[in-house]
Amino acid sequence: MTAVKAAPFDPLAHASRLAAAAAKAGLRSEAFGEAGGVPLLALTRRTPGPRPRIYLSGGIHGDEPAPPLALLSLIEAGAFDGRATWFVCPMLNPLGLARGTRENAGGVDLNRDYRHLESPEVRSHVRWLRRQPNFDLTLCVHEDWESRGFYLYELNPDGRRSLAQPMVDAAVAVCPLDTSPVIDGREARGGIIHPPGDPAQREKWPEAIYLVAHHTRQSYTIESPSSLPLGTRVAALAAALRAALDVATRGS
Ligand SMILES: [Zn+2]
After folding, report:
1. Is 198 helix (H, G, I), strand (E, B) or coil?
2. Mind listing the pLDDT tens digit for each residue in 154-191?
3. 209 CA distance to ligand 1 centroid (A)?
4. φ/ψ (deg, to 5) at 124
């Protein structure tokens, strides 16, 4: 039995805050599904002209409240401006967030469900994703209860200009880096993990694996350490995301 580790989180109130902030920032809100009466929100902003298409998501693990808060803070700060065309799914597991559990109300880890699509949340999300154009970059925002500092996973099969180090540099200005040689069972270097092998061979697909299989050729999953105060984690995630968006949109 896992203890409830996260502070209470009100997903319905957060959805209202997200929608209000999105409207102010010129993002369009769309509900692609719902969970327990809370909308599954997609916030989009299409900028005319040749712009990178950038996707961000958070709140897929309900015991990780910092990602949906970090995405809200970026919306409120106007980070999703005319530099790119934006696709933001800021709260993918509202019922998990309400309960403070990693899984959804049915006990499914949504971030392992992108191959078999057993949960209504992921089915709705995938249906929405299939209607979107391909993305130049995707960023999945998480937290880790076991890590000692910030770290990230990079999936960059074509060797495009990496955003890993800029994100690490920005995050360490706010919180420690996890410098362990092995993080979450995988070889890491300076807080950066390149999952070995062909991730598509895995039996259970996280969101990032699905995205790289079908929607993008460059994807990052970033993790803040849950042991730090919530405000620090939100600031670290927001700093890393800002750095990635700055580099990814430079020259556009
Ligand atoms: Zn997570």
Report:
1. coil
2. 999 999 999 999 999 999 999 999 999 999 899 999 99
3. 14
4. -65, -40
